[in-house]
Amino acid sequence: MKIFQNIINHKINTISADELMKYANQFQIKVSRAQAHKVAAYLKGKQINIFNDAERTGLIKEIAKVAGPETAREVNRIFLELTK
Fold first, then answer.
1. Which residues contact 74 (CB under 8 A, 6 or more apart)?
2. How many domains does the chain have?
3. Does the pLDDT of residue 37 top 80, yes or no?
């Protein structure tokens, strides 16, 4: 199980704006290209563990600042699905 956590966290920590746009479309989340660039830039190089509640909450707060609270709620919903 730990290997899947590592894979998911690695993907989140290295995601590009284009990949983020692709996943946003796949999960039907409205994200502008500018928001995707800001979120991807924020995530780049960070070692965020979405399986840790405190780290995930902090990340969602930062996403809300960049992309808005509705987008942050949707992203959190996806993160919760991934961590089950």
1. 27, 29
2. 1
3. yes
